[in-house]
């Protein structure tokens, strides 16, 4: 078993992003399920110091990483010749295109989609009332982003070209909650022909389906993964 350990819950969007990347790269790892929001849950001290959010942490030997997108970049570079070899591009131009869309996801897609995930997918189950003003504002913001994506996807199969890459993978967690748990979120994706086609393709990948399956289960605190079944 490799030395990679992932701390967190698959239901977390950050954790699910990392898990999908690890499955795409066919990297062996251990998932240690921890929930820092539960006061009675014992959390390793190094996590309290290095990952205050408690969302995701990757530990590789003596090194610890806490940002999910940086973890994905690290995994792709360290295991470049393993699993999906085109996930982070195979040349400078491909890498630059992937980075452009990764930055778009982090800066333009993530803020409104994260707000909508909370208000449309989680507020009601948590006993909270969605803030309609916030919802409407972020629906407009996300709609503008998806309009740009729809134009881009008219000319290419995926965001960074004709291969599935980190640029697409990074969109999976928030998109899943919006499409799967919200009628308004689903409409945002399926009302755009190219975005709908793109979403169906990326969400059907075995790596992501494995993560969705993990989100629906509640096994013990430590799991070991080698490859996708």
From TrEMBL:
Quote the catalytic activity from the record: RX + glutathione = an S-substituted glutathione + a halide anion + H(+)
The record's section on InterPro entries has:
Glutathione-S-Trfase_C-like (IPR010987), Glutathione-S-Trfase_C_sf (IPR036282), Glutathione_S-Trfase (IPR040079), Glutathione_S-Trfase_N (IPR004045), GST_C (IPR004046), GST_Phi_C (IPR034347), Thioredoxin-like_sf (IPR036249)
The record's annotation in CDD domains points to:
GST_C_Phi
Q: Would you indicate the residue range of the signal peptide?
A: none
| Superkingdom of origin | Eukaryota
Keywords for the protein's UniProt record, in alphabetical order: Transferase
Tell me if Transferase is a UniProt keyword of this record.
yes
Q: Which GO terms describe its cellular component?
A: cytoplasm
Residue ranges occupied by any GST N-terminal domain in the UniProt entry: 2-83
Q: Name one Pfam family in it.
A: GST_C
What terms describe the molecular function in GO for this protein? Answer: glutathione binding; glutathione transferase activity
- Residues in GST C-terminal domain copies: 91-222
Its BP terms in the Gene Ontology are: glutathione metabolic process; response to herbicide
Write the Enzyme Commission number(s) for this entry: 2.5.1.18
Query: Which family does the similarity line name?
Result: Belongs to the GST superfamily. Phi family.
Recorded protein name is glutathione transferase
